[in-house]
Amino acid sequence: MVGVVVLAVVAAGAVSAVVATRGSGRTRSAASASTTSAPSGASTTTSVPHLSEHGTVQILHVPVPGDAGRKNDVYVYRPPVPDSPRLPVLYFLHGVPGHASDVFDAGLPGLMDTFFAQGNPPFVLVAPDGNGAHHDDTEWANARDGTDQIETFVTSNVISAVEGANRRDRTRRAIAGFSMGGYGAANLALRHPDLYDDTIPMAAYFHVDDPAGMFGGDLVTIAANSPELHLDAAHGHRIFIVDGDEDDERVVKGESLAAASTLMEDGVPVWFQSIPGSHSWQFVAAAFPSVERFLDGEWIRLHPPPPEIPVSLLPPSVTGHWTGTVDGAQLDVTLPAPADDATVRALDRLRRHARWPAVSYVRVVIANPRSGSRAYSLAKVSFVDANGVTIDANAPAFVALEWADRSNRTSVKNEAQALVPSLVGSTVVPPGTTREAILVTLGPVPSVSSVFAGDSFGSGTLAAAS
What we know:
The chain has 10 helices and 24 strands. By secondary structure, the chain is an alpha+beta fold. The chain has 2 domains: 3-302, Alpha/Beta hydrolase fold, catalytic domain (Rossmann fold); 311-464, Immunoglobulin-like. The strands form 5 sheets. The chain has a 9-stranded mixed β-sheet with strand order 3-7-8-10-9-11-12-13-14, sandwiched between helices. An 8-stranded antiparallel β-sheet has the order 20-19-23-24-15-16-17-22. It has a 3-stranded antiparallel β-sheet with strand order 1-4-5, with no helix packed on it. Helix 2 packs parallel to helix 7 and helix 9 packs antiparallel against helix 10 (410-423). It starts with a strand and ends with a strand.
């Protein structure tokens, strides 16, 4: 995607930037760009429009600890809304060999423009350059010899440069990455649980692969940077692991499913999606709409809770029955789920204790044929009402945790923690298996014009059952 990016100078003397035409490989210095007159020493910003009618892109130059005078590029997409501590940020780490521009050359800003134009909550996208001056494969870590302090660069310098005075809390900060960047995202999230709430490894690995010797062969350092040894620290994170079904890269093959399985067995809510694709940025672009909707599912809850409405004034939830085949699995959806279902009773008891307004419970029977090549994973069923509004029925573990997060009552949080382990994994169906799952909307479904479902945030259409 060829376009013009925005020049921004943030914190004079610390962070600088250049204007670049992406695709040309050429840059020009800030001095040659047209600038707004400002007092000497003050920060200045010069803007030229991005090709999109919505967001703008900046390239910052941020100092790298451990290498005096070195600055790495940080690409920043900003949506067309005022920046504030409430606007979420996704930090996206590239693979090796790679550069910060890889994330943007894959077309992600354009996908975000479309996503936000559809009315979804906006967020900032940040892609730092993780290359070192002394190591050609930094693993997004700090080198043991003191050079190439890339972990500190990402978790301190980049956050400060991007967020500035509008510092976010962890609930409004996510980290993702592809390949080595997926390893880096998992590693940094587990090592800095105070910084990142959502973690999205894509075609990642979860063990140490250190061909450039960042860890100097030190066993203690290697163990400290091995995500597979610290998955128990993932409690309290939302995790979405994505893999390509044609990815044969030795270092990542089988890693994503193994990590997801371990997390599920440990009672950590995790979404896992395998999509068609190989080890490429085309795979990342194809999966990114799922990433956006995963983040939407988290960040939309940061809005003020809906007011409590008397049940007598709520529109009645519609009833219906829909079926269809999505990605080889047969789905049978019933709305509402039977009120005497044990999961429904437990969830509704928690909802009432959390003082959450009325919802709809959806029963889904998922049959994955024995001929299926992989486990089928269902994250949501979407109902489109007569007014074109989409109402999502989500995995119950995440809804239960949301109710607990929104409640200030310790008893509600304890009740949710006790309930969640029985809910995790109910929508993951191995080949040759049939499972029944309960999904939950965040409000009643007043009418239905169409129904969609998928292995994560898919678009498979279901038909009304005869």
